[in-house]
Design a protein that fits this description.
By secondary structure, the protein is mainly alpha-helical. The protein has one domain. It has helices at about 10-30, 35-65, 75-100, 105-130, 140-165, 175-205, 215-240, 245-275, 275-285. Belongs to the TMEM121 family.
Length: about 300
């Protein structure tokens, strides 16, 4: 029986501290938004939820730490899905409390909530990828290509969080109820799925990872983030006169659309103009080399005396 790989304890501790500290800060928001006897009930409820979450996290984080030096990221996807699922539920209740109490114009607290999410969510993704622990990626150029791709994922996460933050930051004129709900849950789904797609691309590549073959995430992000969020911001700016729309991120979406279309066209042109051996080399690089199996020696039957 093959023994399990050793657990990277610093990686486990770092991810656990980041997750639980962000959860505790979300709980502080929920508790401070309630008053009187309801505040005690909310405090007990969030504490029980955190204890249950910590019990599950104790096993999942250890599994993630055990696979950090391997080419697999299956448990990292589970941990990311679990974290975002619970975190966004708390963010939803915080957003609803701010919406119900429109007299509260605590701008600093709302901006701090946006800053907290914009730090913890991308940092956890970088920790789960653990590119510095990819010892099987030995070429410096290849590791830099992977790091550049991860940078685009982090920027996309900030783009999604910026749209979601428009719901709880102070606003003069609120959006319709259906538009707010649709915007929140659209960002919720993107935060759940897209980073898992990026982690699965890294996992499916195996030991001999080939960065230029990781094309699934760029295609999905082009449609779901760069194009659709551009229409969301444009609609908020034109129809609802929302002054909080980020013009910088709208420019980022336009540039990302142009750059990704050019990269897709260049990649397709390279495949069409490449010699026949190019596809064989890509397949050879993406599949780990198997050790040659020794041929069994023929068994000689002993001479039998009649």
């Amino acid at each position: 029986m093959v023994p399990p790989p050793p657990t990277n304890k610093p990686h486990v501790c770092l991810s656990t501290i980041l997750i639980m500290s962000s959860m505790a800060l979300m709980d502080a928001y929920l508790v401070e938004q309630n008053h009187g006897p309801r505040k005690i009930g909310v405090c007990i409820m969030v504490m029980v939820g955190d204890v249950c979450f910590l019990i599950v996290l104790r096993y999942v984080a250890v599994w993630v730490g055990a696979e950090v030096r391997t080419a697999k990221r299956g448990y990292a996807m589970i941990l990311w899905f679990l974290y975002i699922f619970v975190l966004e539920i708390k963010v939803y209740f915080i957003y609803q409390n701010y919406k119900a109490d429109r007299k509260s114009l605590d701008t600093i607290a709302r901006k701090a909530l946006t800053l907290l999410l914009s730090i913890t969510v991308p940092v956890l993704y970088v920790i789960l990828v653990a590119i510095d622990h990819m010892e099987y990626v030995r070429a410096f150029k290849k590791k830099e290509e992977i790091r550049n791709r991860l940078f685009w994922v982090v920027v996309d996460l900030l783009d999604i969080l910026d749209i979601q933050a428009n719901l709880w930051e102070p606003q003069k004129k609120g959006l319709p109820l259906w538009a707010e709900g649709l915007m929140f849950f659209y960002c919720y789904i993107l935060l759940l799925i897209l980073p898992c797609v990026s982690l699965s691309e890294i996992s499916m590549q195996g030991i001999n990872i080939v960065p230029h073959k990781m094309m699934l995430y760029p295609i999905l992000s082009l449609v779901t983030i760069n194009i659709i969020t551009l229409f969301i911001r444009g609609g908020n700016l034109i129809f609802y006169k929302d002054a909080r729309v980020s013009g910088i991120l709208m420019g980022k979406n336009v540039l990302a659309i142009i750059l990704k279309i050019c990269s897709f066209a260049q990649y397709r042109r390279q495949l069409q103009n490449a010699p026949p051996t190019f596809g064989a080399e890509l397949q050879k690089n993406s599949v780990p080399h198997a050790r040659p199996m020794p041929m069994p020696m023929p068994m000689t039957r002993p001479f039998l005396n009649k």
